[in-house]
Amino acid sequence: MILLSVSSSSSSPIAAVFSVAFLLIYFSEPTLAAPCPINVFDSVVPRVEIWLQTFAPGSGTPIHRHSCEEVFVVLKGNGTLYLAETHGSFPGKPIEFPVFANGTIHIPINDAHQVKNTGQEDLQVLVIISRPPIKVFTYDDWFMPHTAARLKFPYYWDEQCLQESQKDEL
Hints:
There is one protein chain. By secondary structure, the chain is mostly beta strands. It has a single domain (3-163), classed as Jelly Rolls (Sandwich). It has helices spanning 13-27, 159-163, and strands at residues 3-5, 48-55, 63-66, 70-76, 78-84, 95-100, 103-107, 112-116, 123-130, 136-139, 150-152. The N and C termini lie far apart (46 Å). Residues 1-17 and 22-42 have low confidence and may be disordered. Residues 1-33 form the signal peptide. Keywords: Auxin signaling pathway, Endoplasmic reticulum, Glycoprotein, Metal-binding, Receptor, Signal, Zinc.
């Protein structure tokens, strides 16, 4: 795992996102993009999706792993990243890492992880994933065997937006 921090208070979170997106594109394998409307660079960068996630205090993701790299750029708030290197028959006990505003975190392919807002205010992150559509495997706990993890494929962060008709504003 690579932990990076955006240290300059004048640095733009958007500049960090584009830098990270460029690295993901440069080092990722070519694949076809998902037909998800959240893919903001549909024709320019078809191998990256960027999601904005906001976690209320006490909330977080399920324990999961997926078939892509993931980068978090923390915009505001703080919390905890739980990360287990997924090399055995189950994730195992995770290592805890603090996450905080202006921090950037890299999650390797198939490493089980979970993000929780352990602060008192909203935790807001930009999530950049490579190689959409992704396969997501969820776990009930850190010692659940990989063979018992539940698969969701394709995974769309906002499935409701796929069901709503897209209207032209003109």
